[in-house]
Structures are given as C-alpha cells and as structure tokens.
C-alpha cells in the first residue's frame, strides 16, 4: 500500500505538469499570434502614413503599444499559472511566444526612437504596476528576439525605400542592422540558437545593402529632380520588393499578411 501511494503521488504530479504545460502552450500560441499581428500592423501603418509624405512614427508606435498591452495582460495572467520557482521547468514552452513578443516590442521601439530596446525596458514592460516582473526574463530570449528584429527591419527598409525620405531611412536601417550583426556575432558561442539566426540576419543585411547600393548607383547616373528620381528608384527596386513580398516576414514561419488585416 505504501508503494501504491507513492506512485499515486507521481501520477498526480505528472498530470499536473502535463495539464499546466498544455495551458502554457495555448498561452504561447496566443502571444505569438498577437505579436505577429502587431508586427504586420506596424508595417501596414507605416506604409499608409507614408503615402502622403513622412511616416508618422509616433502615432504608429502608439497604436502598436496599445495592442502590445493585450500581450502584457496575457503574461500578467500567466504569472498565476507559473510561480517563479517553476518558471525554468516550463521555459522551453514559454520561450517561442516570448521571443515573438520581444520582436514586436523591439520593432515598435525602433520605429518610435530609432534605437535598440534595452533588456531593462523589455523587463519593465513585463512587470506589474509596482515594478515586480511577472517572471524572470531570460537573457537568451531577449537576444534571440532582437535577432529576429533584423528581418523585420529589412522588410521595412526595402518596402519604403522609394518613398519620400525612404532612401535615407534605408541607409540608416542598413547601418543599424550591420552593427547588430557585428555585436551579436560575439555572443554566438554563449547563446544557443543565435548562430543560426545570424545566418538569416546576414541574408537580411545583404538584401538591404543590395537595395541601397542600387539606389546610390542609379541616383548618380541621373541628374533628376527628387520626384522623378523616386520613380526611377521604384522601378529599380521592384525586384527586391517582389522578393520581400513572397518571403515570410521574420525569421520564423509567419502567415500571410491578409490573415491579420481584418482584425488589425
């Protein structure tokens, strides 16, 4: 009977673990889907606001942060599901959604400020009103989420390069992604999975560099007014834009843009 009671305890613990893990998988998927929608929202709003001139990054960032609060509320509820002492037991289940959230948050931050969001700022966004974090923020998830950001910056730079001010912005994004790649390279031996993401970052950087190079070369060939030069540039980069539109945005699989347009 004593042995039977011990195995009953084992069974109960395993059942509780599996049930909690299934709930966390659902939470992680919800966070991932919301974060993808937010990323597409930022892309779409930046293109729409840029149609009449310079994009209104402040208003875009405000709408994005309003949506990010939905993700933060999910993590606030998850705090009751996973006590701090059990967080690392379920870390692999939580990690994918957390990286996607960091990608969306860092993209919003870059659109608004043109800088890389810090670890402390991400942790603050995942804290309650008293500044107490909902859960420990793994440094590796922070870095992997930032690495995914470079794919969105590539898409952002190329899609808006033919618009007014887009050429200068593409140059800024190119330099920013280049610095990110160089800094992340030194951390690859210490962060599992970062080296694979660096391969994609290198591909994104190459696409931005090719587009910016084409702009500089074409711009030096013609002595044209800015309006006419923008038209020439739009035709020149059409091949780059078609590649980006066919590619799934980000480093991980992402659904088509139309999937998110109705809700956001």
TrEMBL record:
Annotated stretches, region: Disordered: 245-264
One Pfam family named in its UniProt record: Translin
Organism taxonomic ancestry: Eukaryota, Fungi, Dikarya, Basidiomycota, Agaricomycotina
Key word Magnesium present: no
One cellular component term from this protein's GO annotations in UniProt: nucleus
The UniProt record lists the keyword Cytoplasm: yes
UniProt KW keywords: Cytoplasm, Nucleus
Family classification: Belongs to the translin family.
Subcellular location: Cytoplasm; Nucleus
Molecular-function annotations in GO: sequence-specific DNA binding
InterPro entries registered for this protein in UniProt: Translin_C, Translin_fam, Translin_N, Translin_sf
Top-rank taxon, per record: Eukaryota
Name by which UniProt lists this protein: Translin
């Amino acid at each position: 009977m004593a042995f039977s009671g011990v195995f009953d305890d084992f069974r109960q613990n395993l059942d509780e673990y599996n049930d909690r893990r299934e709930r966390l998988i659902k939470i992680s998927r919800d966070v991932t889907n919301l974060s993808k929608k937010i990323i597409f929202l930022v892309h779409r709003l930046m293109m729409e606001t840029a149609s009449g001139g310079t994009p209104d990054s402040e208003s875009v960032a405000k709408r994005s942060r309003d949506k990010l609060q939905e993700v933060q509320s999910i993590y606030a509820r998850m705090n009751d599901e996973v006590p701090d002492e059990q967080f690392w037991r379920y870390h692999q289940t939580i990690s994918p959604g957390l990286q996607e959230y960091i990608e969306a948050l860092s993209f919003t931050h870059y659109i608004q400020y043109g800088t890389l969001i810090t670890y402390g700022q991400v942790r603050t966004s995942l804290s309650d009103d008293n500044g107490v974090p909902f859960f420990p923020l793994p440094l590796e998830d922070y870095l992997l989420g930032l690495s995914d950001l470079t794919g969105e910056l590539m898409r952002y730079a190329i899609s808006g390069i033919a618009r007014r001010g887009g050429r200068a912005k593409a140059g800024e994004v190119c330099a920013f992604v280049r610095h990110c790649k160089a800094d992340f390279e030194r951390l690859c031996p210490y962060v599992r999975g970062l080296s694979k993401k660096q391969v994609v970052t290198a591909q994104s950087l190459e696409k931005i560099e090719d587009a910016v190079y084409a702009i500089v070369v074409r711009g030096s060939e013609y002595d044209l007014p800015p309006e006419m030069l923008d038209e020439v540039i739009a035709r020149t980069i059409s091949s780059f834009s078609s590649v980006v539109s066919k590619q799934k945005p980000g480093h991980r699989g992402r659904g088509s843009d139309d999937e998110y347009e109705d809700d956001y």
